[in-house]
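agent> Task received from the user: take the single chain below, predict its 3D structure, and emit structure tokens. No templates, no multimer pairing.
agent> Plan: (1) validate residues, (2) run structure prediction, (3) serialize to tokens, (4) report one or two observations.
agent> Step 1 OK, no nonstandard residues flagged.
tool_call: predict_structure(input=
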Amino acid sequence: LMEREESLRKFKEYLQRRFPDRRTSKDYVSDLRQFMASCNKAWREVGMHDIDAFVDRQRQSGLKAATVKRRAAALKTFFDFLAEESGDLSWPNPVRMKRHAGKQERRLPRDLSNAAVERVWAHIVSERDRAWFALMLRAGLRVGEVASLKLEDILAPARDNQPARLRVCGKGRKERIVLLTVDAYAVLQTWLQVRPGSDHKQVFLNERDGGPLSENGIEYRLREYGQQADFPLTPHQLRHTYARQLTEAGMPVTSLGKLMGHAQVSTTQIYTAGADPELAQAYQQAMQRLSSSPLPVPVKTPHPDQTPDRPLAPIQERTDKEPDWDAWDAHLPPAIRDATLAFVKRRQLTWKAHKRGLQAKKL
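)
tool_result: status=success, residues=363
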């Protein structure tokens, strides 16, 4: 076990050298400890089926597919590291990413509606919290970029028709210039005017000892505001909202990618999925052309096995209770409610009489 702990310590140091500004070392070491808790074998004795058993337990515990994939990647990187450290490059890696990582789900971005943003904003009264919230919503900053932002990174103030310019250090220590609207810059200035004097150069300070505000501190405060607004809230949702709003306003995806610090356009397109203004406009135009042709009423036809000479059974009179259409979901917008009711009533014509009420409610 001491040998295992020593190898884990060296692996952590290796990751910190390789990824000095990222959480990789912390996450990967945590993932390895999960594996060590379920497998007591020496590293040389770990085989592919041991990884199979670990991955199966992770999936059965209800973990997300992305988490399981990351843990498989952590194990693969660790065994590659052990082979290099031992000098035995022929040491087979027991991890097979195609076998153990699994297929990842592809989910659409979880951005906030404009109404939800207003609800959260109404609960934020702290000048400091309003400022970092505005930076994530109006400049698309990651939570780490907000926490590391320094006073000297505010390069130019906002003026009429001229956004403010900020220098941001993103992933991989890549610097980029982001823009900030006049109203968002005014919120930032309000905080800077009341910011306590400090030897720290970070824009945002914590309330405990006046040190730099951490990423965890921002995430904690954001969760609190989400609870007050009655929905879960994460920093990345604000970044998704920023991308969605700019896309709907007509900004080209290549320009948006530069502001967000993406090296590939395909990454930016993940953030803008579902916010394509050209697609929405084409859909609206097509549906307007179809509006003159209402949905057809389905007609019940005889079963193919039924002979023409055999008369159809008469439609039975309705024996169940008719739904109260006037009271049905009155809170819905009239256009949606009326169209839905019309559709259900048309469908009723093809149902058996004694099932119409129940079927209508279910549909």
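agent> Step 4: summary for the user.
The CA atoms of residues 174 and 249 lie 27 Å apart.
agent> Done.
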